[in-house]
Amino acid sequence: MVKYDLEDRTLKFARDVRRLVRKLPKTAANVEDGKQVIRSSGSVGANYIEGNEATSKKDLIYRVKVSRKEVKETRYWLHILDTGTYLEDERTRLIKESNELLCILSTIILELEGQRKPKK
Questions:
Q1: Of 44, 33, 24, which Cα lies nearest the Cα of 80?
Q2: Going along the chain, which residue ranges are E strands?
Q3: For the domain that residue 87 is a member of, what is the CATH number?
Q4: 118 lies in a domain?
Q5: 1-56 tens-digit pLDDT
Q6: Is residue 23 part of a domain?
Q7: CA separation for the pair 20, 41 (Å, rounded)
Q8: Residue 54 sits in which domain range?
């Protein structure tokens, strides 16, 4: 199995999301939405790591697809959060990172499924 070097990047992403959530205004909506974004952001890396330990190509593809799904969910929750104006730059940066992770994971899936040849 090919091991892609995203474990550190997805860990940093989850930690950065948690830092943002800690700084949010403490509204009822942010408390609930914060829980959701924390869960999904952590799941991105957790599923990716599980994929790297997969015993079959099919399982690897499944785990990377779940990781991609969790990135999409995290992006959704990031858009919903009420950051106020002082945290908007941080949220925008995390949304950009989620978009980049989404592209990377989508490329990995295409390569694993044989729909795209890897770059050399």
A1: 33
A2: none
A3: 1.20.1440.60
A4: no
A5: 445 489 999 999 999 999 999 999 999 999 999 999 999 999 999 999 999 999 99
A6: yes
A7: 12
A8: 7-112
